[in-house]
Q: What sequence folds into this?
């Protein structure tokens, strides 16, 4: 995507997004973002008075971008048609496999951000918690609405998703496949628990 024609703020944000996600927030200095986005220092600081402001904007942008992809990836696999079947949880394994195969995959930007700057950038940890809360809500939408343990199962599935992300991030296609297989087994157990609870 050629971002050179975009307004300066958007150009800076998209450049920072790619650099922060690929190389880390701490490892990416402001001067590098300025150079890569093709703006002056004056222009940069007009839009982002500090690196912390840019980090918060990056997390907001990443949240919107990732959640849109997540919902779309589930939809492409028929999540809406299967919402009354707890087996729809298994779609999460397929969605994660798609993400892990992306050459740009570097784990969860929110887990990474909390590890890097969660205690030093005001609002970073809160944004990460909100991101995970919304992910749980989307996962809950895969379970039957009448399920008595819907949110508990969704939270367990989300924890499994996060665990698979961290394992896949450790490197290598074989480890990513193993992470997906582990996640699938967990999701099968959660789906069985949901069916059992519904049958009572």
A:
């Amino acid at each position: 995507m050629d971002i050179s024609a975009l307004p300066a703020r958007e150009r800076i944000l998209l450049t920072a997004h790619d650099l922060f996600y690929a190389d880390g927030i701490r490892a990416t200095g402001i001067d590098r973002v300025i150079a890569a986005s093709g703006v002056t220092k004056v222009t940069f600081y007009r839009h982002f008075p500090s690196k912390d402001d840019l980090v918060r904007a990056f997390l907001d942008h990443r949240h919107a971008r990732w959640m849109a992809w997540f919902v779309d990836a589930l939809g492409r696999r028929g999540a809406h048609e299967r919402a009354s079947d707890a087996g729809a949880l298994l779609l999460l394994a397929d969605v994660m496999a798609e993400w892990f195969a992306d050459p740009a995959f570097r784990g969860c930007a929110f887990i990474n951000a909390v590890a890097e700057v969660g205690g030093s950038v005001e609002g970073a940890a809160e944004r990460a918690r909100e991101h995970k809360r919304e992910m749980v809500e989307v996962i809950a939408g895969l379970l039957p609405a009448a399920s008595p343990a819907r949110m508990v199962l969704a939270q367990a599935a989300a924890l499994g998703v996060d665990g698979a992300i961290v394992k896949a991030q450790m490197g290598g296609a074989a480890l990513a496949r193993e992470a997906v297989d582990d996640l699938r087994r967990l999701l099968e157990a959660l789906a069985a628990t949901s069916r059992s609870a519904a049958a009572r």
